[in-house]
Amino acid sequence: MTQVIVIRHGRTEWNRVERFRGRADLELDEVGIKQAEATAERVAEWAVEAVYCSPLKRTMATAGIIASRLGLQAKPLPGIIDIDYGEWQGLSPEEARAKDSSMYDGWLKTPHMTRFPGGESLDEIRQRASSAVGGLVKQHPDGVIALVSHKMVCHVLILHFLGLDNSHFWQIGQDVCAVNFFETDGSYSYTRLINDTCHLRRLGLI
Predict the structure, then answer these.
(1) How far is CA 185 from CA 3, 79, 155, 197, in A?
(2) Are the C-beta atoms of 126 and 156 separated by less than 8 Å?
(3) How much is the pTM?
(4) What is the C-alpha to C-alpha distance for residues 48 and 11, in angstroms, rounded to an integer?
(5) What is the Cα–Cα distance from 6 to 4, expressed in whole angstroms?
(6) CA 154 to chain centre
(7) Per residue in 126-173, pLDDT tens?
(8) Phi and psi (nearest 5°) for 76?
(9) Half-sphere exposure of 72 (CA within 13 A, CB side)
(10) Is residue 130 within 8 Å of 124, Cβ to Cβ?
């Protein structure tokens, strides 16, 4: 079984004020850097042999801090890049509701049926992300790997490992720099941790 640690990146300004981030290439803020450092100490408890990440700055920075603590280098993995929000990128929730209240309500009630205008759906994210992870499981049989990605991607990967469809999207919690841990052989998965933030809470970073 391959052990897969799925990690959400640290805080950015658009996490603090809450905007639809998507492919916007945001930097970690000061708190986000501290969160990544705390997460690195947490992940160092496992014998991680490789660290992979979305190619955006916030995930690259988070993964770089974690990989450095482990004596490794983070490797970009395009398949786990954040969702493409299309026309919604950069909007606040209030602005998105004002732009299209029907679609916004649909996103909250039936996320699995929503496709962002000019962007992606949850099914499209899940297909590319699960395919990318499946390839890594074959590369690292019986190994431990860490993946640093984004809230949307972490949500759908968690559902993938749990064997649940995307209609359960809002039943998953995923805080910044949360750690999730799974064991999988590519077809069967076992869940050990979901949305673990103890490493942040004891330092007052969340």
Answers:
(1) 9, 19, 20, 26
(2) yes
(3) 0.96
(4) 23
(5) 6
(6) 3
(7) 999 999 999 999 999 999 999 999 999 999 999 999 999 999 999 999
(8) -65, 140
(9) 20
(10) no
Kindly list the distances between the CA atom of residue 26 and the CA atoms of 113, 170, 176, 185, in Å, as whole numbers in the listed order.
28, 24, 14, 34
Classified as helix, coil or strand, 19 is coil
**3 state DSSP class of 40:** helix
Q: Is 17 in contact with 197 (CB distance < 8 Å)?
A: no
Q: Which helix (H) or strand (E) holds 144?
A: strand 144-149
Q: In angstroms, how far is CA 178 from the centroid of its own chain?
A: 9
Kindly write down the DSSP assignment for every residue of 164-199, as one continuous string. Answer: --GGGGGG----TT-EEEEEESSS-EEEEEEEE-HH
Contact (CB, 8 A) for 57 and 143: no
Domains of the chain: 2-83+121-201 (3.40.50.1240)
